[in-house]
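Suppose a colleague, Dr. K., hands you the sequence of a protein chain of 293 amino acids and asks what its three-dimensional shape might be. Before reaching for any lab equipment, you can write down a predicted structure in token form. Begin with the sequence itself:
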Amino acid sequence: MESLLSLSFDYLSSFDSGKIRKGLRQLEGLLAQICLSKSSNMPAAEKRRSVANPSSKERTPKELASLKDDPAFREFFKLQEGFEWNVAIRLIACLERLLGKGSNGQNDLLIVATLDLLQGILLLHPPSRSLFAREIYMNLLLDLLDPSNCPAIQSSTLLTLVTTLLEQPLNTRTFETVDGLLTVTSLFKSRSTSREVKMKLVEFLYFYLMPETPNPLHSFSAPSTAVLQRSPSKHLRSAFSRSVNGVGRGGYAEDEETRTTEEKQALLGRYLNNVEDLVEDLRESAPFGAALT
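The predicted structure, expressed as tokens, is then:
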């Protein structure tokens, strides 16, 4: 697995669009091997080809509960705990380079593909979300919401932004600190913003207004050179846990600042009128499966 990640990272660090695309496909293939069920009688050579071409076989997603006992997943998860093999860091660096190349059709497609992979990585490895407690990385996502970018990039960025904020109050505070609410509401008010993106923005605001609870798995420290020292037989939940004494941004776990819907409504009200209507919709429709009290 290390050799495949190393090769993918080499491609992602290139300025050549073709090599970047190849690196993204290799990572997609690796994640497909981990997350999708495969036939037990598939020849070894065909298994290797499926890594490079993940769309070559129709496969069904594995049950989440089964991942905790999957050796490939546990090996991948452990590798993500170290800086050298962390995929999220490489994808962020790739986004920075792509953003610097300007807007064109081919580059836009690569940005969308990178964002899609980043979403998956952040869901598979929640500790990597703590990277976005750093303003430099949160600002990168906000830059991708620039009105000059195409609607596909804006929509993918909003989905990625939601993923970075899941169960991460500290990331949400960073989002607020770097004027994330101003960026989002300005895009919503802009006449040039497409209807599809405006719908995504409304969905994002619904998500933002949900009340927060402290992270049940603790606040993860950013990937460091330390790796998890746990038995492979541990439950998936325990695999997601990190010691607050780890290297990186660990020290925030004990006193994460959380905000209620009312507090966030007041913040959002500085930039947008009729926020109370959004809150009322949340109370009535419970779009995320939990009604507001």
